[in-house]
Amino acid sequence: MNIIKHISSRLIHTHVCALFFFSAAAILMCASCSSTKFVPDGKYLLTDVKIESDDNSINTSQMEPYVSQQANTKWFSLFEIPLGTYNLSGRDTTKWINKILRRLGEKPVLFDTLKADMSLKNLRTAMQNMGYLQADAKLTTTVKDKKIKAIYTLHPGKPYFIGNIEYDILDRDIADILDMDNEANRGLKSGMLFSIDNLENERKKITKILSDSGYYKFNKDYIIYEADSTKGNDSIDVKLKLMKYRADSKSPEKNHNRYYINKVTFTGADGGNIKLRRSVLDDNLAIREGTPFSEHDLQKTYSNFARLQAVKYTNIQFEELPDTSLLNCNIQLSTNKPNTISFQPEGTNTAGNLGAAASLTYENRNLFRGSELLSIQLRAAFEAITGLEGYKAEDYEEYNIEGKLMFPRFIAPFLSDNFRKNSNAHSELSVSYNLQNRPEFHRRVFTSAWTYHWNAPKHNTTYRFDLIDLNYVYMPWISEKFKEDYLDDDSNRNAILRYNYEDLFIMKMGFGMTYNNGVHAIKANIETAGNLLGAISGISDFKKNGDGQYTLFNIAFAQYVKADFDYTRLFTFDWRNSLALHFDFGIAYPYGNSKILPFEKRYFSGGANSVRGWNVRELGPGKFKGTDGRIDFINQTGDMKLDFNIEYRTALFWKFNGAFFIDAGNIWTLRSYAEQPGGQFKFDEFYKQIAVSYGLGIRLNLDYFIMRLDMGVKAINPAYTTKKEHYPIIDPNFRRDVSFHFAVGLPF
Question: What are phi and psi of 318, to 5 degrees?
Fold first, then answer.
């Protein structure tokens, strides 16, 4: 029976993959053979659009948005799959199959001379705005059969630069604030490119300064430029004029009014009460009575109240007092219902063992009327375990209770009120208790932590500081058979396995940083555990256990240091195509009171966010190959991790995106363990143990989250030494070398 299942499974895998590739090949053939099927006589299919320039100073890729007509979509910039799908349809539009194919596909793009002329005009204007005032653009087409290629050639000509600069500010109060007599305050410099961007940036800078200095009614339209190119060379003199205020075209000119905040009031939605303490309102208020109006303070106030869980929306209005320079500020707040209860059922499947789980969550978003968030979650899971011989019970039960209390501010001594008000932070207290009953053992885990989170919006950076994080693992019962087979057997002295089935106490501190500007993404974390207890044990009379470890309450405490670094670089070619490069490195070292890392802190490789040719915990460490599926989830872990990933992403159709990726990496141990032969990191060998895989992925982008399905195929497998098995890219076996991963979110 097992042989039949094995053969059937292998055939299914083979046929599915073969069907996938044959289908793709068929569509490609159709796309190439019948691409002009629906092109009328006298019209041409636009197959390719290129932009060239006779001046390398022009980045042609940045000029693509100015071309009004692009060719049909190409998957991975190569394959016209959408057009091929459309061309598979028949001419009878009443048939359902033709409707579906046309809806899924993309109709041919027919070359339009009017859009081509518009593209030329747009390109010339764009280059002129960049400072190339004599720029020109030409269109060249190549026609073959019913297909046409369009090449736009740019002739920028010579660039023009800013010569002399004059700031003409008629309002003396504003002139004093801007202080343009000081060269350091000027955004325009002699020798800069005479471009719209440079001129517009100066207008925006001045507008921001004045908007933050009390000039409530000021906008950039009051700033105009005069340009003088009569010198006859490539230099243009510029005069910036800041005009006086006019209420309308018929009103006389006068100096701009500088407004001050008179009074700030809070009101509830529909006149109701605001269920927040006054001190909380004041702490999140950036607008201050008696100070000049500031657009920055206005936006910061919006941002501060948006962070509060208790606040639904915020509306801020200003009222000008007649015949004065005073503004009354009214802040209207609408609050959420404080209490919510949610229930979430789920199905589970662990290595073929089916089960069910359910969670019940209670939230209070305004516990102490300070927008504190209290969350209490109860979770229960059950799974029927099969295939375990010699054990009385065959079920898995898990019960978990977790409580979190989040404060929307720093809760810490010795911090000034000004720092608390200006920091975008929250403090979090969490406590949880987890009960697990398996046929092999019973485990109890208690955790408690106090954590700070804050960010620096201007620098796209967020921070996390774990002041204290306590973990207590208690093993009240281990079955005799499990002890006999794995823990007490002299022939199987698995130190890693035994360590993870002992009582353990972890007391750690950690710091993490995340940076993301849309192009570069960096994550860095460091944590250390047991140092304080280790220092105390050295000067106090802490008892030692049989392994020579210091104990606290008769439980050995863990001592280690762990550091992680993750970097992603995104190259965007156009709105459809991008390339992501990813590097991930982590290392952890047990010392002092520990010789082995706790299981939760060890690294694993394989899975949806690692080397996707392997399933989770199937790869490594080093060239180690798992031998016992029941304990390989322990053995296939390490103290060090290294990942490299390249992923080409492209838009397909509707909300579907595709990806082609190459993954490389592995894990290693820093010490040599008998139960993990070949797993230790060595400088002269590790590069030979880098696993490599490649594959394809499809993603459904629903804006608020992304679902993806990736198919990874092994290319280099370090667990094998024979050429055929070490290089499966030469002779792939679909059952052995293909892995499928379903996940939510991008891998990096």
Answer: -115, 140
